[in-house]
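User: Here's a structure from my thesis project, written as structure tokens. My advisor, Dr. K., wants to see whether a designed sequence matches the one we expressed. Can you design one independently, without my sequence as a hint?
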């Protein structure tokens, strides 16, 4: 891949505690393929206010926001799109002439995937997690018609608050959970993490479920997704989520709406270098 930079080249970037190659490869692949004068670079920071001030001052077009900055960035933005305002969690900043608008494309991606996979509405949900990603996932589920369920979260205060906000129940453990849709919105199963080989739900719970959804993107085949495949349960993967949320960011930055085939090729290229 050869990027020809000019003085007019627009910079897009990401901010996270642990930058990955996915966004960099995904966006730059498409910039080159579509002939767009953009470049994308991943960054980390120990001074979030200074980093956001730099985005505004230097005219950086857009910035993906990852953990642990999704909530901390809110007071540094100039406005919140409805998705970010409702969730109080941000994963995207767009710079329009020095004004930073905040979005949450995780929510948009989950809503789109529920529609794409035609997951039957009204099924009972059990979701593990209570952080920023969990808030986006649960809001998307409820808005899509999944009104019954349980939030499973070790953090009692956050778990109860999230469950109450959406009319769900709360439990601190998943052992007694029975549900039609099992959703993992925690780092359980994430490559390189402390629980990389762990299952977010037991094989028996997977066997009793109609659908399995794991938002962990690395690896694409998490232990939970592998168990769902083994048992013949339909599944939605974090690989799908990360690709669609990146595609939504791409559109916000460039104004270009990608085709499904373009998203698939960019995602495959991005994963080949992660």
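Assistant: Designed independently from the structure alone:
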């Amino acid at each position: 891949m050869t990027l020809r930079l000019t003085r007019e080249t627009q910079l897009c970037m990401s901010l996270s505690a642990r930058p990955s190659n996915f966004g960099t490869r995904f966006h730059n692949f498409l910039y080159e393929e579509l002939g767009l004068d953009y470049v994308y670079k991943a960054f980390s920071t120990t001074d979030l206010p200074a980093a956001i001030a730099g985005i505004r001052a230097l005219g950086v077009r857009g910035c993906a926001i990852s953990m642990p900055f999704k909530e901390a960035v809110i007071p540094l933005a100039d406005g919140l799109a409805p998705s970010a305002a409702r969730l109080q969690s941000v994963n995207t900043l767009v710079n329009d002439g020095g004004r930073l608008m905040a979005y949450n494309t995780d929510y948009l991606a989950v809503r789109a995937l529920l529609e794409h996979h035609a997951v039957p509405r009204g099924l009972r949900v059990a979701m593990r997690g209570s952080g920023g990603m969990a808030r986006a996932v649960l809001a998307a589920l409820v808005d899509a018609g999944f009104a019954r369920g349980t939030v499973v979260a070790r953090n009692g205060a956050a778990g109860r608050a999230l469950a109450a906000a959406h009319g769900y129940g709360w439990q601190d453990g998943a052992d007694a959970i029975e549900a039609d849709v099992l959703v993992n919105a925690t780092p359980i199963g994430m490559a390189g993490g402390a629980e990389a080989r762990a299952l977010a739900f037991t094989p028996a719970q997977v066997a009793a479920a109609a659908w399995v959804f794991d938002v962990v993107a690395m690896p694409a085949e998490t232990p939970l997704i592998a168990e769902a495949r083994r048992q013949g349960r339909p599944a939605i993967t974090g690989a799908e989520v990360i690709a669609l949320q990146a595609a939504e960011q791409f559109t916000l930055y460039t104004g270009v709406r990608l085709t499904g085939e373009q998203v698939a090729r960019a995602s495959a290229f991005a994963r080949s270098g992660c």
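When you compare it with your expressed construct, this may help: The chain has ten helices and twelve strands.
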